[in-house]
Design a protein that fits this description.
By secondary structure, the protein is an alpha/beta fold. It is built from nine helices and nine strands.
């Protein structure tokens, strides 16, 4: 090492107060610039949502195509993606490769279960399993299992179940596979580039919670008073739909927004209630009449 250089370095006077101030000011400016440009990035993080106080996943006891047991309890402690699908369903087939990759990536802490609906052709199912290289159990969903999970109105339908066996989310239709992976990682306690929020199930996950909903698909209650709105919601949850779904009107609106019978009946109920004027108590109601004071006798003139 050059001793002369070391000596010059050690004998260099410390920076002046002005120099230190300017250096600190530059650092503060850099931090503000970073915050200015990074702030929107943090604000634009995707949001994933999980049910607050989730229900236990309904248990089922099925057999896969090789005769092995398929159930929820066997995978307790793992995150579960319960995937209802069919061989004839295009979106279902499209997401299979991503599910296979996801199962490979988190195989020790994730269990994907495929339940086939509206499809009893085992030969066709086996063919898809082989051609797609499906690496998770596949079984035929019986009517009881379908009903327990809300009837499965569309395919694919995926229920996200946490390691405690509780359903925290439900996805209907083809979704970005990155969403599934983000949810799985969040439930496993792994880092995610997303904001996690919670919500109350109002029938979106399980129809039995439709009585919590304040808004129903296609139902306009904007012209009702708060009292009328409460009365309407009570009727929607007390009256059964006659379309054959065996659900209440509220459940049917959530389950099948295209149902014209529940749509028409809810509109009739709203019309009936809107005609009823809210009775206002009379102005003097509830007021206790104040007794009149007795007249004060006048003094008689002294004789």
């Amino acid at each position: 090492m050059d001793c002369a250089f070391l000596k010059r370095y050690m004998m260099k006077p410390p920076p002046s107060l002005k120099h230190r101030f300017l250096r600190a000011l530059r650092g503060l400016f850099s931090a503000l610039v970073l915050l200015l440009f990074a702030g929107p990035c943090f604000a634009q993080l995707p949001v994933i949502r999980f049910v607050r106080d989730p229900d236990l996943a309904p248990e089922f006891k099925l057999k896969d195509l090789s005769g092995k047991d398929v159930n929820i309890e066997a995978s307790r402690g793992k995150v579960i993606l319960l995937n209802f699908w069919a061989t004839w369903c295009g979106p279902c087939r499209e997401e299979i490769p991503e599910l296979v990759a996801l199962q490979n990536r988190y195989k020790d802490r994730l269990q994907i279960i495929g339940l086939v609906v509206d499809d009893d052709d085992e030969k066709a199912i086996r063919s898809v399993i082989a051609s797609e290289g499906i690496n998770y159990p596949v079984a035929l969903a019986d009517p009881d299992t379908r009903f327990a999970y809300g009837g499965i109105a569309a395919l694919p339908t995926v229920f996200v179940i946490n390691s405690e066996g509780r359903v925290v989310q439900k996805h209907v239709g083809l979704f970005n596979p990155a969403l599934y992976e983000t949810e799985v990682r969040a439930l496993l306690g792994l880092p995610v580039a997303a904001t996690v929020e919670t919500f109350q199930d109002e029938g979106d996950i399980f129809l039995k919670h439709a009585d919590r909903a304040k808004i129903l698909p296609g139902v306009d209650m904007s012209k009702l008073s708060p009292e009328q709105r409460d009365a309407a919601l009570h009727k929607f949850n007390a009256e059964s739909c006659t379309c054959g779904c065996k659900f209440t009107l509220a459940q049917c609106r959530i389950y099948d927004a295209a149902c014209q019978i529940s749509l028409r009946r809810t509109a009739e109920i709203i019309k009936e209630l809107s005609k009823q004027e809210t009775k206002q108590p009379p102005k003097d109601a509830g007021q206790v009449p104040i007794p009149a004071s007795p007249p004060v006798p006048s003094e008689s003139p002294k004789p």
